[in-house]
Amino acid sequence: VEYSPFFEHRLACASAANFGIVGNGRLWIFNTAAPPGTANPDAAVERTYDTQDGLFDIAWSEVHENQLVTSSGDGSIKLWDLSLADFPIRNWSEHAREVFSVNWNLVSKDTFLSASWDHSIKLWSPESETSLSTWQDHTHCVYQATWSPTSATAFASASGDGTVRTWDARAPRASTVLRAHDGEVLALDWNKYDPAVLVSGSVDRSVRAWDLRRPDRPLAIVGTHGYAVRRLRCSPHSRAVVASVGYDMTARFWDLDAAAAAAAGPPPPPLHVHDLHTEFVLGVDLNMFVPGR
């Protein structure tokens, strides 16, 4: 799921049948605004697009308010325009396996990244028919690649090889390799207020914070889930708040400052646990326009 960077009530969701193992996908566009006279309605469906394979991730364009990209289990990436019906306006098929992540550049706003189970990360432009660059340092599936919120060329990646790596898009190899977890690393995000701080989540159930100025050890063990951590998001409104979701069917909110202060002991309890889901929780996003949503 991802909120639009242009409209506070517009939300996109990428979905897949049968947990993405086999079956079709669907792109959903929701309007979360409350109609007149209601206080807390269900989100209204504005538009849907069906695909032949499951969709795993989504990223809104930072330039065009009606455009977004999706990543798919068949290795394809599709660019959609909400002003048009039925079909994507561009389709790329360079990855050899599932594309698990797409992420738009927040600074330059003209490119996006993809991360795939084929061990590669690719750089794309909506205007180009082919990828602009490819990186292949990882030795296992790449589950996520995410741009820095403060640099047009810096990004980080999370992989099944147990590492988090940081990159300069102008260089062919990773600039930093963090031996981040004892298991596959499924998720990461950049702190929006400190460009040297990253947060990662793993099948080892832990959420960990890292300071790139001291990459040899975690800044903090932020917290733990009951099962694997599937996705993370650092708050756009608070330096300390981190949200995580996982296969234990919960969404949890953590205090990074409290975790760093307790570095010598067990991590503090979460600020809040949302446990109303009845299946795996695979996505989370925080609204940049509305604190607390």
Explain how this protein is built:
This protein has one helix and 24 strands. The strands form six sheets. A four-stranded antiparallel beta sheet has the order 1-2-3-4, with no helix packed on it. A four-stranded antiparallel beta sheet has the order 5-6-7-8, with no helix packed on it. It has a four-stranded antiparallel beta sheet with strand order 9-10-11-12, with no helix packed on it. The protein is mainly β and 293 residues long. The chain starts with a strand and ends in a 19-residue tail after the last strand. A hairpin with a 6-residue loop joins strand 17 (185-190) and strand 18 (197-202). The protein has one helix spanning 256-261, and strands at residues 2-3, 10-16, 25-31, 44-51, 55-60, 67-72, 77-81, 90-92, 99-104, 112-116, 121-124, 133-135, 142-147, 154-159, 163-168, 176-179, 185-190, 197-202, 206-211, 220-224, 229-234, 241-246, 251-255, 272-274.
Give a nutshell description of this structure.
The protein is mainly β.
Order of helices and strands: EEEEEEEEEEEEEEEEEEEEEEEHE
Average per-residue pLDDT, rounded, comes to 95
Euclidean distance between termini CA atoms: 13 Å
The helix fraction, in percent, is: under 10%
Radius of gyration: 18 Å
Sheet with the most strands, sense and barrel status: 4 strands, antiparallel
Strand content: 35-45%
Count of distinct strands = 24
Q: Largest sheet, order of strands side by side?
A: 1-2-3-4
Structural class: mainly beta
- Please work out how many helical segments DSSP would assign: 1
